[in-house]
Amino acid sequence: MTGTAETTTTTPTNSPDASAPSNLPAASAAAPDSTDIRPLMASFPSGVSVVTALGADSAPRGMTCSSLASVALDPATLVVCLRTAGPTLRAALDSGHFALNLLHEEARAVSDLFASGSTDRFAHAEWRLPLGAAGPHLTEAALAVADCAVVHAVEVGDHTAVFGRVTRVTQTDGKSPLLYGRRRYARWSAAASAPAPEAGPAPARALPAPAPAPAPTLAIPSPLEGEARVGS
């Protein structure tokens, strides 16, 4: 099996539009967008997954992916962003299926493996292909796996957004997610068990303002029956 290093964090934005109006200056219409959004997205911690699929040769393909999101609950649909030039995307599109393996907090080595240039990634990770699976399940590294059927794909620069309809979800009890942000890993269990910040002193309560003195009232005799009242 041949492969290349694959990893993903975000999809590029504001790609040049081939349909831009012809009256725009040539330099503006053709200039590539050089904005680097990686520092921005590094400040957005997320879970870590490995997307897997079977190629046309039935060989497994996979890549580490932290750029994913749920799209709809009915029908259950999610989106993953895969490297456009990578073999994992080609396998998913050719087969029409992929599996999303969400990694648990002990699986950092597997995340690094599938983000590397190793050509035999699956030789160093335990996996199986259950009946009806959409792609290899990383049995020792995943806390949950979603089997998906490809329903749509949109190429955006160097990544392609692949929409998958979830056909089955498999979960493992007792596992916590692996997190990634600021270019480093973290454990969900450590983040969730961090003590809450100590409560500061209660702010002083302002005394209520004294009620204004009642305005003096004038005794106004009640009108007699049939007597006219001005303003009534």
Task: Tell me which oligomeric state these chains represent.
Answer: single chain
Radius of gyration (CA) equals 30 Å
Number of helices: 5
Mean pLDDT: 80
Order of helices and strands: HHEEEEEHEHEEEEH
Which SSEs are present, and which pair or pack?
Elements: H1 26-30, H2 38-42, E1 46-47, E2 49-54, E3 60-65, E4 68-73, E5 76-83, H3 87-95, E6 97-103, H4 108-114, E7 142-156, E8 159-171, E9 178-181, E10 184-187, H5 188-193
Antiparallel strand pairs: 1-9, 2-3, 2-6, 4-5, 5-8, 6-7, 7-8, 9-10
Keywords:
disordered N terminus; elongated; alpha+beta; three-stranded antiparallel beta sheet; seven-stranded antiparallel beta sheet; disordered C terminus; 232 residues; 31% strand
What does this structure look like?
This protein is of the alpha+beta class and 232 residues long. 14% of the residues lie in helices and 31% in strands. The protein has 5 helices and 10 strands, in the order H-H-E-E-E-E-E-H-E-H-E-E-E-E-H. The chain has helices at 26-30, 38-42, 87-95, 108-114, 188-193, and strands spanning 46-47, 49-54, 60-65, 68-73, 76-83, 97-103, 142-156, 159-171, 178-181, 184-187. The strands form 2 sheets. Strands 3-2-6-7-8-5-4 form a 7-stranded antiparallel beta sheet, with helices on both faces. The chain starts with 25 loop residues before the first helix and ends in a 39-residue tail after the last helix.
